[in-house]
User: Which sequence fits this backbone?
């Protein structure tokens, strides 16, 4: 969640002014959040509906009363300074926060007619439908082929021909097939960083999810590899819903259809990307996107 | 500022020199050890010339001169000490003279010659013979007479005798061994029939059936035994008449000679060939003459097999324990305490594990197994006595802490990202652990196994009470069902060194064997380690850590 590896050229950044915004400032003004136009873009066909979600790591609250709708087959970007809770929110969608001790949530996220926090929900099935790509590419220490086949195998695919077909389809889907088709048996760890990240995307789409969560997928990549991933995301959004956390506002403005700006665990503004970047409704959003802090 | 940094560098330089020096010293010690073992062990197989000495009193002696030294001796308890030159002669002929080695005062030696027809006979019994060949006879008929003619006749005959000897061994071990075992098993069954409390009629009929089978087997045994006697007779028919340097002559069967050499007329090629053949015999042959001669193959086999069985037990056990400690157990004071206990277990003296092995494995487990499955053999224990299985289990217990610690470190080094990547695909904790985490930790786990194997191969003390013996009549693996006999006692290189070096009646003669065996033990450990390291490197290449 750190910004150490941002390689994409940035807007000129003035000295940050932390005093321009104080934590005590009510994030959403005095309006009822449900009616606030700064928080409620028109979303016709939501896949995920977050309803008054709050989250605590032990005693420390990380998310405050977040509500939002994530549209189907669009790219939604979460932006905000480090520690604002955007990754935490993302990791709620596939309940990866379960792996952290002492996490407690309130509120709900609706997915396919059920609350994903429902204790009766089968979390492995949820994670099959909501895939994830991490900040640092994390291919398994296995061959390229086995990396893709792993997810299929654990979900019960045994036949060699099915696996072969799915591996090729996934690698093509991640625009990686032509580069690796002759070295499927070699270790995935011998590939370049960009290739590894696309392999992770291929791995995620191999199990045919509905949603793919991308947690700063380009922060460790060079500009060319970043451009390829962004291109890939545009191709993928026809078939999948993408949610991306990014530190890089240019990236958010380039790739996403909707953008959510978060600060200190609160959703400050959420809307269509052009509107949010060109015409922010909140002062905090404007300060952040113009580089006045963050 | 400048002065401080200069002083620091000086200290640093000295430390580097010290560290480098320590490393160099360690290397030197290791190399010195191997060289010492190699020189002392391997040189003894090189053929030495046979010297014939004529002594001042007219006696003659023949043998290999092993040592020439200046010694201070005191002839009588009160007499003056004098300094003399003396030589140590390996004269062999233990059956005639009673000692292999003699010290001879240099002043008593009138002349030393190296006769070309001096012959060294390596025998199956009584050690080496040094002397000359006189004749070759079958019964009263003389096949050859005179040194050279006998030499040629002997070499024509010897390969056939070797084959006959092999046939005898095969018969003893094969058919006769099998029949003996069947007979023993049936006798046990017969006794068992009495024990089991069957109805009287059933018991009698069972006993009769067994008796009939026994009678048939005994018949077979008689036939085979007669065959064996015939073979033995044929084998010992030809007799070699040999003459020692002092003129005593002796007859010995041609078959009793393993190898006849005239070292004084051997060229370099011949010596090399002889050296190779002796070395091969040492590595592949069976011991003779209470381990003082012959090879050490059973000890090599026992050592390797024991380490192998130990690895089979210790790897799953250690890895499972480490996986539980690292992946499943809630990290807290209890787990910390367990971890400390495991580490301390590694420091317990090995003989303590031996005692535990004897008490728990041999007496308790083995005794129970005997009562449950082999009651008819009692009071002769089957598993209730030391054996290779119990020895391996004892060693597995001894080395399990090493494996646990190394495996835990390997598991801890697997990045969180790999676990999350697997979970994010919908894998369960179990699938993540066994299909991603453990394979990624495999090189670390193998490092632990390598350490465990190295330690196990060198352990002697605990094994002496759980199944290691100085001479095992049979290998733990053979052609008789069930082929692997885990209850058998076994030989071990480490114990062999101790036994040959310090428990032998003929310490002087076996000194080179001690060094050679030690060298071989080091070599065996090294070969096993190299094999494990090769596997580990292959795994490392496959699971190479990311460069990014």
Assistant:
């Amino acid at each position: 969640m750190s910004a150490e590896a941002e390689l994409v050229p940035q807007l000129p950044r003035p000295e940050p002014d932390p005093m321009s915004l104080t934590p005590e400032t009510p994030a959403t003004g005095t309006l009822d959040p449900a009616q606030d136009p700064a928080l409620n873009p028109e979303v016709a066909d939501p896949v995920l509906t977050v309803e008054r979600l709050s989250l605590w790591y032990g005693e420390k609250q990380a998310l405050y009363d977040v509500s939002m709708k994530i549209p189907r087959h669009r790219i939604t970007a979460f932006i905000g300074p480090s520690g604002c809770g955007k990754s935490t929110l993302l990791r709620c969608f596939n309940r990866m926060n379960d792996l952290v001790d002492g996490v407690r949530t309130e509120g709900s996220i609706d997915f396919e007619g059920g609350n994903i926090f429902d204790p009766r929900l089968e979390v492995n099935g949820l994670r099959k439908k909501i895939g994830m790509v991490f900040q640092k590419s994390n291919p398994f220490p296995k061959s390229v082929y086995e990396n893709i086949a792993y997810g299929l195998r654990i979900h019960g695919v045994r036949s060699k021909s099915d696996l072969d077909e799915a591996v090729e389809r996934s690698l093509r889907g991640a625009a990686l097939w032509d580069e690796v088709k002759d070295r499927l048996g070699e270790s995935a760890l011998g590939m370049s960083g960009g290739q590894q990240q696309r392999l992770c995307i291929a791995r995620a789409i191999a199990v045919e999810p509905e949603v793919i969560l991308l947690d700063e997928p380009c922060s460790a990549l060079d500009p060319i590899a970043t451009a390829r991933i962004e291109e890939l995301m545009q191709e993928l959004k026809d078939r999948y819903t993408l949610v991306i956390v990014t530190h890089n506002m240019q990236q958010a403005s380039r790739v996403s259809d909707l953008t959510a700006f978060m600060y200190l665990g609160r959703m400050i503004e959420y809307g269509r990307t052009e509107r949010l970047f060109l015409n922010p409704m909140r002062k905090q959003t404007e300060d952040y996107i113009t580089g006045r802090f963050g | 500022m400048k002065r401080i940094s200069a002083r620091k560098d000086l200290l640093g330089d000295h430390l580097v020199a010290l560290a480098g020096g320590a490393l160099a010293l360690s290397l030197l010690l290791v190399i010195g050890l191997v060289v010492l073992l190699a020189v002392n062990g391997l040189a003894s197989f090189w053929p030495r010339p046979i010297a014939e000495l004529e002594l001042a009193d007219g006696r003659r002696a023949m043998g290999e001169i092993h040592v020439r030294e200046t010694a201070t001796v005191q002839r009588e308890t009160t007499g003056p000490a004098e300094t003399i030159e003396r030589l140590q002669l390996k004269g062999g002929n233990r059956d005639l003279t009673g000692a292999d080695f003699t010290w001879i005062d240099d002043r008593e030696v009138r002349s030393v010659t190296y006769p070309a027809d001096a012959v060294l006979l390596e025998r199956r019994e009584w050690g080496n013979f040094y002397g000359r060949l006189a004749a070759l006879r079958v019964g009263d008929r003389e096949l050859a007479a005179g040194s050279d003619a006998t030499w040629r006749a002997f070499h024509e005959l010897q390969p056939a005798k070797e084959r006959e000897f092999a046939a005898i061994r095969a018969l003893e071990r094969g058919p006769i061994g099998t029949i003996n075992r069947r007979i023993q098993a049936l006798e046990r069954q017969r006794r068992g029939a009495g024990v089991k409390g069957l109805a009287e009629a059933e018991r009698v009929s069972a006993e009769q059936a067994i008796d009939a089978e026994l009678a048939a087997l005994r018949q077979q045994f008689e036939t085979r035994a007669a065959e064996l006697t015939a073979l033995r007779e044929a084998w010992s028919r030809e007799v070699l008449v040999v003459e020692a340097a002092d003129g005593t002559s002796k007859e010995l069967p041609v078959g009793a000679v393993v190898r006849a050499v005239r070292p004084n007329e051997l060229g370099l090629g011949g010596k090399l060939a002889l050296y190779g053949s002796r070395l091969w015999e040492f590595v592949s042959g069976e011991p003779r003459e209470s381990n003082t001669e012959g090879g050490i193959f059973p000890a090599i086999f026992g050592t390797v097999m024991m380490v192998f069985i130990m690895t089979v037990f210790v790897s799953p056990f250690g890895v499972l324990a480490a996986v539980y400690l690292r992946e499943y157990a809630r990290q807290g004071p209890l787990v910390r305490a367990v971890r400390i206990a495991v580490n301390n277990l590694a420091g317990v003296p090995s003989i303590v594990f031996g005692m535990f092995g004897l008490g728990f494995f041999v007496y308790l487990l083995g005794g129970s197994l005997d009562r449950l499955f082999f009651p008819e053999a009692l009071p002769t224990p089957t598993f209730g006595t030391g054996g290779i299985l119990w020895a391996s289990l004892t060693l597995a217990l001894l080395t399990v802490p090493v494996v646990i610690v190394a495996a835990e470190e390997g598991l801890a080094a697997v990045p969180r990202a790999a676990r999350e990547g697997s979970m994010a695909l919908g894998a369960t904790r179990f699938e993540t652990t066994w299909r991603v985490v453990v394979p990624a930790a495999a090189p670390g786990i193998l490092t632990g196994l390598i350490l465990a194997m190295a330690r196990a191969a060198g352990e002697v003390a605990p094994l002496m009470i759980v199944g290691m013996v100085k001479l095992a009549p049979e290998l733990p693996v053979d052609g008789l069902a069930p082929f692997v006999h885990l209850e058998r006692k076994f030989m071990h290189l480490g114990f062999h060194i101790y036994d040959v070096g310090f428990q032998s009646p003929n310490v002087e003669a076996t000194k080179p064997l001690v060094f050679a065996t030690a060298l071989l033990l080091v070599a065996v450990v090294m070969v096993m380690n190299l094999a494990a390291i090769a596997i580990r490197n292959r795994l490392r290449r496959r699971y190479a850590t990311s460069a990014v």
In short: Residues 125 and 289 of chain B are 6 Å apart (CA to CA). The longest strand of chain B covers residues 60-74. Chain B touches chain A at residues 415, 417-428, 431, 435-436, 439-440, 541-548 (CB under 8 Å). Chain B has three domains: 51-115, 141-277, 304-486.
